[in-house]
Automatic annotation (TrEMBL):
Organism: Halorubrum lacusprofundi (strain ATCC 49239 / DSM 5036 / JCM 8891 / ACAM 34)
Entry's Gene Ontology BP terms: cobalamin biosynthetic process
UniProt keyword annotation of Protease present: no
Organism lineage: Archaea, Methanobacteriati, Methanobacteriota, Stenosarchaea group, Halobacteria
HAMAP family listed in its UniProt record: CobD_CbiB
Topology versus the membrane: Multi-pass membrane protein
Stretches that traverse the bilayer: 56-83, 89-109, 301-322
Function: Converts cobyric acid to cobinamide by the addition of aminopropanol on the F carboxylic group.
Name of this chain's protein: Probable cobalamin biosynthesis protein CobD
Protein location: Cell membrane
C-alpha cells in the first residue's frame, strides 16, 4: 500500500471528509436507482415479514447486515490502494465518494424548506411533502403543526443522517490511525466502514424498528445505543450554531418527552434555540410556553440546521487533526 510521502494519514482523512461534504453540497443525493442506501434498503425489505422466531431473525439481521455492508465498503477502499499504487489519491477519492453516500444535509435542508414554504401556499401539498421528513399521519395537521413536524424532523435527521455517519468516520479513522501508524489506506477503510455501519444500523431502525414489527426489536435497540452520543453531539452543534449554550439547559428538561431516548435532544435544543413550541399532537410538547413556529421561525430553523451541519464538519475535522498527536503503535517509526 505504498503512498506518496506528502499524503499523510491525517491529511488523507481530512481530504476524504472534504470530498464527501463537497459532493453532498453539490449533488445532494445519488440517483435513487443506484443509491447504496436504497439498495441496502431493498435487502432489508426481504426481512420485513412474519417469522416463526422473529427476535432471533432480528438479532441476526441487526448484527449481520451492518457488519457485512461495512466490511464490503471498507474492502473497496482497501482494494483501491492496490489498484493503482502510483495514484496515491485513489483511496481518498473512493473513500470520499462512499462517505458521501452515507451523509445527507443539502437534501434535508431543501426538503424542509419546501415543506415550510408550502405550509403558506399549499397546505395539502405540504402534507404530502412532509412524509419525506416525518413518519406521522399528516392528514389533519394544521399549517403550524406541519411546520413543527418539519422543524422537529430536520433537527432529528441532522443527527441520524449527517452527524452520526460523520462521527462514525472520524472515530473509525482514529482507530485506523492508531493501529496503522503511517499507513494511509487503513484509517480510510476503517473510517468508511464505521460510517457505513452507522448508516446501516440507522436504516434498519427506520425500516424495521417499530412496535408492530417484532423482527425489528434488535435493530431498534441497537440504533438507540448507536445514536446515544450523536444525538447529544447534535444538540451541542445546534446550541453552538444558535450562539446559545443556555439552549442545552432548557433542552435537558424536555428531551425525555418523546418516546425515543435520543431524538428528543436535537428537537428540544432546536425548540429552545428558536424559542418555538414543537409538538407532535397526542404524543409530546417541547417548549410548551412558546408559540408554534411561524413561517419565519421555520425558515430560521432551516438556517440553524445548515449552520449546525457546518459545526459538525468542523468538529469532525478538528478531531481528525488532533489525531496527529496520537502515540505511534509499537514498532512503527514516523
Amino acid at each position: 500500500m505504498a503512498t506518496a510521502p506528502l499524503l499523510t494519514p491525517v491529511l488523507a482523512s481530512l481530504a476524504t471528509l472534504a470530498i464527501a461534504v463537497a459532493l453532498d453540497l453539490a449533488l445532494a443525493e445519488p440517483p435513487a436507482r443506484v443509491h447504496p442506501v436504497a439498495l441496502f434498503g431493498s435487502v432489508v425489505g426481504r426481512f420485513d415479514r412474519s417469522w416463526s422466531r422473529p427476535r432471533l431473525v432480528g438479532v441476526a439481521v441487526a448484527v449481520g447486515l451492518p457488519i457485512g455492508v461495512a466490511a464490503f465498503a471498507g474492502g473497496i477502499v482497501a482494494a483501491a490502494s492496490f489498484a493503482l499504487p502510483a495514484f496515491s489519491a485513489l483511496p481518498v477519492l473512493v473513500a470520499g465518494t462512499i462517505l458521501f453516500t452515507t451523509v445527507s444535509l443539502r437534501m434535508l435542508l431543501a426538503t424542509t424548506a419546501e415543506v415550510v414554504e408550502l405550509t403558506e401556499t399549499d397546505p395539502d401539498a405540504a402534507r404530502e411533502s412532509v412524509r419525506a421528513l416525518a413518519g406521522r399521519d399528516a392528514t389533519d395537521l394544521s399549517p403550524a403543526d406541519l411546520r413543527s413536524a418539519a422543524v422537529e424532523s430536520a433537527a432529528e435527521n441532522l443527527a441520524d443522517g449527517f452527524v452520526a455517519p460523520l462521527g462514525g468516520f472520524a472515530l473509525g479513522a482514529t482507530v485506523g490511525l492508531a493501529v496503522g501508524g503511517s499507513e494511509v489506506a487503513l484509517p480510510l477503510a476503517a473510517g468508511v466502514a464505521a460510517a457505513v455501519w452507522v448508516k446501516a444500523v440507522n436504516t434498519l431502525d427506520s425500516m424495521l424498528g417499530y412496535r408492530s414489527k417484532p423482527v425489528g426489536w434488535a435493530s431498534a435497540r441497537l440504533d438507540d445505543a448507536v445514536m446515544f452520543l450523536p444525538a447529544r453531539v447534535t444538540a451541542g452543534c445546534l446550541s453552538v450554531a444558535a450562539g446559545s449554550i443556555e439552549a442545552l439547559r432548557w433542552a435537558a428538561s424536555w428531551a425525555g418527552k418523546p418516546g425515543s431516548p435520543n431524538s428528543g435532544w436535537p428537537m428540544a435544543t432546536a425548540a429552545a434555540a428558536l424559542d418555538v413550541r414543537l409538538e407532535k399532537p397526542g404524543h409530546y410538547v417541547l417548549n410548551p410556553d412558546a408559540s408554534p413556529p411561524s413561517v419565519v421561525d421555520a425558515e430560521r430553523a432551516v438556517r440553524l440546521v445548515g449552520v449546525s451541519g457546518g459545526v459538525a464538519v468542523a468538529l469532525a475535522a478538528g478531531w481528525l487533526l488532533a489525531t496527529r498527536w496520537l502515540p505511534a503503535p509499537a514498532g512503527v517509526i514516523g
